[in-house]
Write a structure and sequence with these properties.
Length: 219
């Protein structure tokens, strides 16, 4: 019998996107010699209601930076993947699942080079039997064929497989359409009563690992 498979989403499932963005901002401020007050200014501006363009326009004017708002936004966004941070317990959880006999896979929508940089930056590159990054131009979640594709790459079919993710549309809706048991990471959000209804709801990735390790494969 093939070992059970669990497929994970990446951003805001295994990786803390907000923390990576914050680290990228802090790194930029330090590189430009803006000091701790500069870090805080950047955080405050980016946490506000301004658009990305407006935020960087304000930052550029405040610190008399030579680049345009768009150039500043682009240069900081380009460093974000290198600052990727795994949620607490994510790496340990993947290791525990694999030790318990699960196969693990990563299925993410996004630019392959960006997403793979995040995987390497968080030390997770050896922790998956298969990785599939779906380019914006091609077939991607929630299309059920990409779930079938990754199951084949991971050495089996979708029987007894699970999908874990934070997006109700891409991860839960797509996973259900492919016949998977689904686990939604809510991050405290309320599950709407319309739309995809996950089999399990947890608030963070550590709780997801606890359920997977306890429940094991579905039959
Ligand atoms: Mg996500």
């Amino acid at each position: 019998m093939t070992e059970p498979l669990v497929i994970f989403d990446l951003d805001d499932t295994l990786i803390d996107y907000a923390q990576a963005a914050d680290r990228a901002l802090a790194s930029f401020a330090h590189q430009r010699g803006l000091g701790e007050s500069g870090v805080q200014f950047l955080r405050d501006v980016n946490a506000g209601t301004l658009t990305v363009h407006e935020a960087w326009q304000l930052i550029g004017e405040h610190f008399l930076l030579p680049e345009s708002a768009d150039e500043l936004a682009r240069s900081v966004a380009a460093t974000l993947p290198d600052h990727a941070v795994a949620f607490e317990g994510a790496v340990e959880g993947l290791n525990s699942l694999r030790e318990a006999g699960w196969r693990t896979a990563l299925l993410s929508n996004g630019s392959p080079s960006v997403q793979l940089t995040k995987v390497r930056a968080t030390g997770m590159e050896e922790l998956f039997d298969a990785v599939l990054i779906c380019d914006p131009g091609g077939t991607r979640k929630p299309d059920p064929t990409v779930f079938e594709d990754i199951a084949v790459r991971a050495g089996g079919g979708l029987r007894n497989s699970w999908m874990v993710g934070d997006s109700l549309t891409s991860d839960i809706g797509g996973g259900q359409a492919a016949g998977l048991t689904t686990l939604w990471i809510s991050h405290g959000r309320i599950l709407p009563d319309h739309g995809p209804q996950p089999d399990h709801v947890v608030s963070n990735i550590s709780a997801a690992f606890q359920i997977l390790l306890k429940e094991g494969p579905t039959s």
